[in-house]
């Protein structure tokens, strides 16, 4: 395998261990990759605050693409750039259309710097930078800007939710789900993980051929399709598997680290072969 210039990885279910922590093996693999000239980019549905909750990871990141591709974030400087946002009027209309199909839905709006959500969401989220308010109308009154609409249903899977709203007027927003987990995310038209990653790479004059990507869920599929080489985790959703060029082990088995270690080992082998060939030529 040729050494890539960028390692782009989803976080939850992919780079992070099942408990949401960074394993020692993965941490060492990322550090070795950066020491060998590779950049490491987190590509996640999380907010910038969600990335900040991973202090062991931050020193190993060259950047983060948050909110499913809508935001560029530099964890070491705290700089946030919103690439795509949604008009709040459009968010209201889409939420109303969804509520007709999913009357048990709870709504939240990600603003780029925080999240405003229905107070009934609080039990699911726990400690966070969320602001909880009473009722969906208050959510939209408080949100002055929207980069993502979040919808949660406790008694449904994400796939069931996606099927229920498939024929609704979603205003052209990009929708993604997490399989069995009962949540949908809606981003601005064209905003997905491939869009955010391509934007980050273009600023550095890099294309998909320079990237190896990792993911496990349907929202990772655009990124896995865009990168020249990509890996679905061992327990990945079928949509992620179909989009990726390869498979690796699960996050419980440090699947991302296994691929990085193999890439670095191949690079060392090629260096040894080159050195040997140069020595033979000099002797001749």
Automatic annotation (TrEMBL):
Q: Name one Pfam family in it.
A: Hydrolase_3
The record ties this protein, via InterPro entries, to: HAD-like_sf, HAD_sf
Please indicate which superkingdom the organism of origin belongs to: Bacteria
Q: Which GO terms describe its cellular component?
A: cytosol
A GO molecular function term, named singly, is: magnesium ion binding
Q: Which SUPFAM superfamilies match?
A: HAD-like (SSF56784)
Q: Return the protein name.
A: HAD family phosphatase
